[in-house]
Every structure is written in structure tokens, then in C-alpha cells.
Amino acid sequence: MSNYCLSSSSSSSLQYLKVKRWEPKLIVPAKPTPYEQKKLSDIDNQEALRYQVPIIMFYPNNLLNEGKDPAKVICEAVGKALVPYYPFAGRLIEEGPNKKLTVDCNEEGVLFIEAEANVTLDQLGHIILPLTGPFLDEFLHDLPGCEGIIGCPLLLFQVTRLLCGGFVFAVRINHTMADAPGMMQFLNAIAEFAHGATEPSVSPVWERHLLNARDPPRINLDTNQVMEVQPKMVIETFYFGPSEINAIKKHVEERCTTFELLTACLWKCRTEALELEPEQIVRLSFVVNLRWKKHKNLHVPSGYYGNAFGFPVVISKAGDLCKNSLGYVVELVKKTKAQMSENYVKSVADFMVIMGQPESLKGNFFVSDVTRVGYGELDFGWGKPVCAGPCRVSRHLACVYRRHRNRGEDGIAVPICLPELAMARFCQELKKMKGNGSGSFKLQSEV
Questions:
Q1: Where is the signal peptide (predicted)?
Q2: What is the mean pLDDT of residues 8-31?
């Protein structure tokens, strides 16, 4: 019998883990690159994107690479990738009254840490699952003075060799420089150079002006969307495989995508778990990739690696979500998703210019689906990772969908942040959706 809730790491699991790190070094482009300044777009410039995105991948041993050092191979590949992607080797500066971000392309380089751990991948097995545990700090070490946005390295890499011959690849990327597809495009370039390529298969495109505000700027969206984010206290990771998705589908008569179904279900269960006043306004916000063909009117070119996404917001009264069916909530999601347009995206950029930089969204369930980004396909020459994706649950992205293989089946792992009592109610609401009278069971990851 399958169930939703995945196990999280415990402190006892960390007692044996020790990581030895070499002195960090700066990796500069392997060849000279232009010295210039390149402005970010008004979409890049959002205050809500001024943070670091940590991504981690766990690789098993590959006997075909006996004698090869993954740290050396990846380090050299990073230097080569920084030639076409030379803005990543620069530093951000702020200009003007709106603190517009600009990259000073100066070849200062990115940080790289080589490390070794006293464990095997099998020993890490059950604690790598949620990608939210405190042990992740061992595999992506924060260097003092380098965690900022302005004047700091835009990338931090750490490659940690394991006793079994496998390794852990981790990277921290400044979100203002790239969104998930853009980050993956850059990481794929590194992987291609690690395989011996002389140039990336996809040429990087800057063209950030395409997602700037209009002249003159004009706002055509609801400014009530911009507010503060609520604090979260407990993190649990939930698994949705084929049986869970099929159980939820039984509550909906309308045709919908897995994303629409799962997002509506989580938003409804979360709202019910928080026990809000019926008249309180709640919001659902989700990321929509503007590179899709149906958004071709936005003219985002192939190879563009900046932030190219919209975040449509569904607004409802808490009472309406709780008393109506799941199908009602699915229709809200579908309707808002269909309204994504060039006007909406440009209005967001215009808002940044006219109103300044909002912090984030209050009372907002913020969802980002990275199941199709390709983290689990990244191959530096050792094969695909057994577990991969953004790690830690950020206050900016409270809910990130990622691919996860559980007991031989492919599904979606979802970290949820809630106050402790609300988390217990959330699990009960999910159980109702599943139509299963038994309690939630912790699942073990398989490495």
C-alpha cells in the first residue's frame, strides 16, 4: 500500500557524517571574455528573486570512470562553460533609484569547493530523500561573506567524493541571473564540456531587454497580489505516485493536467488545515514557463537563460475553497493559468518600475513545478543522479514539485511548510482525498 508522507532526516542519521573540505578557489573563464556591463531585465530585478537557489545531486559510482576525479573533471568543465556564459563570472551592482541590477562582467570568477565525505551513498540513503535536512549544509558549505547578492560570486559549487566512488554535486545560483530552465541550460553546458564538447549544444542568449517594462510603463494587474509571506514552522515531504494521483482524480469530473489537479488539491487541503476565517482572502501563485510554444507571442528566444516566467495568482475566500468541491478549485486554477499573456508579464515588469520592488506574497501558497526541468538527467560522465533537485524549502518558494522514484515507481515529491498543528490537519485532509481510512506512513527512499 502506498501513501503520501515521506520520511525526513533525523539528527541521529548525521552522527557519522564528516566532510573534509579543501580551501575554496575561484574558477575564472578558461579563455578571455568581454569586459562590459549587462543589465538584467525588470523580471530578473524582482526583490523576491534576490536569493540563492541551492541544487544538489547524488551520483553513484561508475566503474567505467575508475581513476577519474569528478571534482577535477567538473572544475575544468565549469571554467570552459564560463566562456560562453561569462556574465556568471562577474558581479552584480545596483544602479539608479529603483536599484536596477547590472552584471559587471569582470572575470572575477565563481567559487568552487572540493571535498570528501566519510560515507557511502548507501549510508546516506534514507536521509537524502526530502532534500531539506540540515546535513545538506555539509555538501554545500556557506562561505562567510559570499551569501549576498550584490558584489558576491554568482555561483558556488561543491563536489564531494564519497567512499563508494560516487559523489555529491551541489551548486548555489543567484536567482536573479536565471530561472530553473536557465539554470539547467547552464548546468547542461557544464556536463557537455565534461564529456569533451568544445562548445555547448545550446548557445546562450542574453537579450534581457525583451522582458523589460513598457515605455511608458502601465499596470494592468491586481496590486493586492503583492504582500508579505507567512512564516512556516514544520516541513514535511509528501509523495504523489500514480495511485495517489488516481485517487485524487476521483474527486474531479473535469479534464485537467496532473499539475492543475495536484496544485488545486494541495491548496484546498492547506487552506482547510490552516482553519482560516471564511471571509479571509487566500492566494495561490504558480510559476508558468514563458518559453513554451503557446507563449510564442512573448518572443523568448531559444537559449535565453534569464528569468522567463510569469506567476499568475488565483484569489479566493478561504470559505469558498473549503465548502466547494475539488473540481471547483481545479477550475479556478485552469482559468487563471489560461489568462497568462504578454500583457500580464509586461504588467509585472511595469509594476516593478512604477511601484518599486515588493518583498513577496502574503497568505500566498507559492508553487513551482520543476519536474520537467531535467535535474535527474544531468550526466557529467558518471551517469544520471539517483536523487536531484532544489534543496531546502525557501521562504520564497514554499512548495517545489520535483521528480522522485519510490519503490520502483515514478512520482512527484512535494515539500510542504505549515505550523505543527496545521500540518497534522493537512495530513488528515490528504487522507480524505485519498479515501483511505488508515493513517499516513513514512516512506523510505531507495538509493
A1: none
A2: 77
Compute CA 209 distance to the chain's CA centroid, rounded to the nearest angstrom: 24
**253-294 per-position pLDDT tens digit:** 889 999 999 999 999 999 999 999 999 999 998 888 888 655
Q: Span 414-431, mean pLDDT?
A: 87
The enclosing H or E element of 237 equals: strand 234-240
Alpha-carbon distance of 316 to 282, in angstroms, equals: 6
CB 274 within 8 A of CB 267: no
Cell numbers standing for residue 379: 550526466
Q: Are 400 and 370 in contact (CB under 8 A)?
A: yes
What residues form DSSP beta bridges with 237? 6, 415
Q: What is the DSSP letter of 210?
A: G
Instruction: Characterize the bridge pairing of strands 19-21 and 110-117.
Output: antiparallel
Report the run of H or E that residue 411 belongs to, with start and end: strand 409-418
Report the largest interatomic distance among the alpha carbons of the chain, rounded to a whole angstrom: 64
What 3-state DSSP class applies to 386? Answer: coil
- Phi, psi dihedrals of residue 419, rounded to the nearest 5°: -60, 155
Going by the DSSP 8-state scheme, the letter that residue 119 receives in this structure is S
CA dist 108 and 146 (Å) reads: 13
The helix (run of H) or strand (run of E) holding residue 329 is: helix 326-338
Give the span between the Cα atoms of 184 and 187, in whole angstroms: 5
Closest CA to 433 of 291, 283, 302, 273: 273
Q: What gap in Å lies between CA 360 and CA 228, rounded to an integer?
A: 5
Is the pLDDT at 22 greater than 80? The verdict is: yes
- CA-to-CA distance for 49 and 351, rounded, in angstroms? 15
> How far is Cα 388 from Cα 394, in angstroms, rounded to an integer?
16
Q: How far apart are CA 202 and CA 192, in angstroms?
A: 10
The residue-averaged pLDDT of 359-363 equals 47
Q: What CA–CA distance (Å, rounded) separates 385 from 391?
A: 14
Nearest to 4 by CA among 446, 441, 419, 416: 441
Give the chain's radius of gyration (CA, Å).
22
DSSP bridge pairs for 235:
417
User: pLDDT at residue 36 above 60?
Assistant: yes
Q: Model-level pTM greater than 0.90? A: no
**Separation between Cα atoms, residue 93 and residue 230, nearest integer Å:** 30
Burial of 182 from C-beta contacts in 10 A (0-12 / 13-18 / 19+): buried
How far is it, in rounded angstroms, from Cα 116 to Cα 21?
Answer: 7
Cell of 282: 487566500
In order of 35, 193, 196, 360, 418, the CA distances from 395 in angstroms are: 35, 34, 38, 9, 12
